[in-house]
């Protein structure tokens, strides 16, 4: 995960605390989408640190449609932002809308917000194009100095955001996700550990590893966590990580073979 500089964290805490009152007022007054968008633009500038004139483009044209905001630095679009009115609940159709904006421009990140709720999506370019919800906060209930708030706005901030830093954020989210945990529980090292502990529980018991794996799969883990594209992707990532770890251990345990010195011709 990216380390958020202290000065960025301080700015986020101070500015979010200030905007939380505006967000509460906006909800009470039931402001429309246009007014919410103005507030969001201010937040992108004041909280995230982007230049409101040079780096936040409103009504960015994309194939006959218009994204509410494109946030870009030196002509490189970092993410699109789609804004809904303050009291509108964020829905799947809104997510699809902003994901399509990003996908049409080859951008990896898309933000959906109603001023209070902020969601950051990573766009995945497969067939079909999909997305993963990576960060999700609600400023109506969160404290301004909470880790979730600082990580959300800090990772997206002008000072911290890079392609590699956001890839780390995405990978960390995947690693700590329910699908990855399920895949780890079904992996060979965990099955072997469970088998070892079961043998300690009862004398004479010697279950087959595949029997244990089936029990975990059928009676311990929810079906939804081992089926579908996200589950398959997580299982593949876990297998790659285990293979990489095995190669590294093998390399560390293999002694270096020194070649005998070559005889010089007389």
Helical residue percent band: 40-55%
Total number of helices: 9
Distance between the termini: 60 Å
Strand content: 15-25%
Mean pLDDT: 90
Low-pLDDT residue spans:
none
Biggest sheet: strand arrangement = 1-2-3-4-5-6
CATH class of the largest domain: Alpha Beta
Number of domains: 2
Element string (H = helix, E = strand)? HHEEEHEEEHHHHHH
User: Measured on Cα atoms, how large is the radius of gyration?
Assistant: 25 Å
By CATH, the architecture of the largest domain is named Alpha-Beta Complex
- Taken from the alpha-carbon principal axes, the silhouette is globular
* Global structural class: alpha+beta
Could you please describe the fold and organization of this structure?
This protein has two domains: 6-160, tt1808, chain A (Alpha-Beta Complex); 178-252, no CATH class. It is 50% helix and 17% strand. It has a six-stranded mixed β-sheet with strand order 1-2-3-4-5-6, with helices on both faces. The chain is an alpha+beta fold. It has helices at 6-29, 33-46, 92-105, 147-155, 163-175, 178-185, 188-201, 209-220, 229-253; strands at residues 56-62, 65-73, 76-83, 109-113, 117-124, 130-138. Helix 1 (6-29) runs antiparallel to helix 2 (33-46), helix 1 (6-29) packs across helix 4 (147-155) and helix 6 (178-185) crosses helix 9 (229-253).
